[in-house]
Write a structure and sequence with these properties.
Number of domains: 2
Largest sheet: 2 strands, antiparallel
Helix content: over 70%
Number of helices: 4
Distance between the termini: 124 Å
Strand content: under 5%
Radius of gyration: 34 Å
Order of helices and strands: HHHHEE
Length: 174
């Protein structure tokens, strides 16, 4: 019976110890959890700021590129007009005008406003938005494929090209 009393007291003190320990551990766990959340938030904020900065730089590059293409299209439209191809000239000029508007938008609107505009357009015209996105993706893929093939040809010509331009079908040049 004495053993039962002692074991009962032992159980009470171990239960008390178990109840007291989690409170201390829980406090440390909560602090560690809070620190982890704060670190995660800081990393996320840094990544977000870096991404925003990179996108804003790309936005300006895209504006410059669109402006350059618009200028080239304007020149092409003038040449078509000189060749008395007015319907083609109008079409090319309209494309140039659209690119100029895009370039101005890219130069003067911030990223958040453009995202908001794109979201609003997607909600109003989901089919047109999807079709435009597919067309842009297709054109971007063609451009990238063309650029990489051009780069490979330039690289091949720059290195190890052993073409002898002095010999043709008619024989050597004198």
């Amino acid at each position: 019976m004495v053993d039962e009393i002692h074991s009962g007291e032992g159980q009470r003190s171990s239960v008390q110890a178990k109840e007291a320990a989690p409170a201390g551990v829980e406090g440390r766990g909560a602090a560690t959890s809070q620190e982890a959340k704060e670190r995660t938030r800081a990393v996320w904020d840094d990544a977000r700021a870096n991404m925003r900065s990179a996108l804003e730089g790309r936005q300006q590059e895209a504006a410059t590129g669109a402006g350059d293409v618009a200028g080239a299209l304007r020149n092409a439209a003038r040449q078509l007009e000189e060749q008395h191809k007015s319907s083609s000239a109008r079409l090319v000029d309209n494309a140039a005008e659209g690119l100029e508007r895009l370039a101005d938008t890219l130069r003067h609107k911030n990223l958040d406003a453009m995202v908001h505009d794109a979201e609003s357009f997607a909600r109003r015209e989901p089919g047109l938005f999807f079709g435009t996105a597919v067309a842009i993706g297709f054109l971007a893929a063609r451009f990238l494929k063309s650029s990489s093939q051009q780069g490979e040809r330039t690289h091949a010509m720059g290195e190890g090209s052993t073409t002898d331009v002095t010999h043709r079908e008619t024989g050597p040049l004198h």
